[in-house]
Amino acid sequence: MILVGNVLRAVWIVLGSLIGYYFLGFLGFVYGLSLSVLPPLAYYLWLQKSKGMLIFRYELYKVAFALGVGITSYVGSTLFSGTIPWVSNEAMT
Question: For residue 89, what are the contacts with CB-CB under 8 A and spacing of at least 6?
Fold first, then answer.
């Protein structure tokens, strides 16, 4: 089970980063690497559902927590980059 998840992740890292780089440049490469967790996650969820062990509510809690951390990080970085001149986008251009 773990081997299949790791193989899916390795294949996605190669394909996702190459496709992302082709379409979006370096940022697409980063997106492709960042999303490498999705294929194993889909496999593990499918495996849990097929064995009757999936508790959907707990999976939603995990998604809500990750979404909350992501939104908080985005807001924090936006506020932080506006307060320090050498971190802001205007100073880099």
Answer: 81
Contact between residue 33 and residue 13 where contact means Cβ atoms under 8 Å apart: yes
Q: Which residues of 3-12 are buried (b: 16+ CB within 10 A; e: fewer)?
A: eebeebbeeb
Quick check: helix, strand or coil at residue 53? coil
Task: Say how far apart CA 62 and CA 37 lie, in whole Å.
Answer: 14
- pTM over the 0.85 mark: no
For 36-55, the pLDDT digits (tens) are 989 998 999 999 999 999 99
Report the residue count for the chain.
Answer: 93
